[in-house]
Amino acid sequence: MANREVFIVGHGLTKFGEHYHKNPSSLASQALIEAIKNSHLEKESIQSVFLGSLVTNTNSQSSVGSNCLRECNLTIPFTRIEAGTASGAAAFQQAYVAIKSGLFDCVAVVGVENLSDFVKNSTIEKILGTTIDYSWEFEMGATLTSLYAILTKAHMQEYKTTMEQLASVPEKNHKNGAYNKKAQFQKEIPLERFLKAKRISEPIGRFDPATHCDGSGAIILASSDFVEKNLKPGYLTRVLGIGSASDYLALQHREQLTTLKATKIAAKNAYAMAGISSTDVNVAEVHDSYPIGEILAIEDLDLFPKGEGGSATETGKTKINGEVSVNTSGGLKARGDPFGATGLAQIIEIIDQLDGKADQRQVDDIKYGLTQNVSGTGAMSYVNIFAKEEVKQ
Q: Which of 110, 66, 104, 76 is nearest to 92 (CA)?
């Protein structure tokens, strides 16, 4: 069973943004129904659902899984996965394992979050406090932003990373997001606006962090046996490799502040499973909740040498059709960051790129696509690698 391959046979994605008129289950069911339609399968083919979300156990959101299945007229089991801001990617990997092991032949992954109300009533920081060390950091007054400021300062000091290089990350991602119809912010923002913005936690400016919003994504996975029996011959996205790892929650306990150890280990395992090296990847969706997040990611994924992530971004090596096209969707910064849905949105962007359906964001001559989704300041990291492959009957 372990030798059979896992393919993505359908996907759906809501627009990211503020959806005050919708509850989490309606967003989740919207994405899942679209994914089923996209798969050309009967909904009865799906044997289980894996739900990724950080806040579905909060207040009225606790029943989102059951309500989503009810709205889709499904009576199959579902499992909720919570891995902080990387819940979507964690759910995806659990679904992959369920197929790979032979337990199921066809499953759905749904990631969802409805964060507008939490932002409005100022409880979002307490929720994010669960993704960092609650005792050593959050209760001592630290926030996710202030901790990323520490990571930023460390990189600037060790590698002479400049403010211009940091600002080049969100500038690029807003340029890409301007062409993404599902993105929350579809407009370019000039470099100077990031540089001149008020500092909210030096050196992080008010326009640097990704925005917490609402949205949902869904992906349907199936085994090679199932695909050969139930779908027409053609090309599908295959999951080549996955990797995950963890590190200390508290920054003070980590070996380094300029490397996310969890990402390095997860990437190493994913590359080994896929049978490729980092030089084979030419499109990647990475976790840019703050500018330093993307810089650390492309270095720790070995897409660029350590210390050169900032200069690579500033000189255009990460733009569309650069050396490695990074965050062609607009990333978390422009697309928006509804935690549980973010990891799936990253994967869906890679699927669209491999299918040649990314419109003005399209990358030429794609070999392999990669996603990296982290929780908090990188204590948990999930890396996935994909390629297009012909399926025959």
A: 110
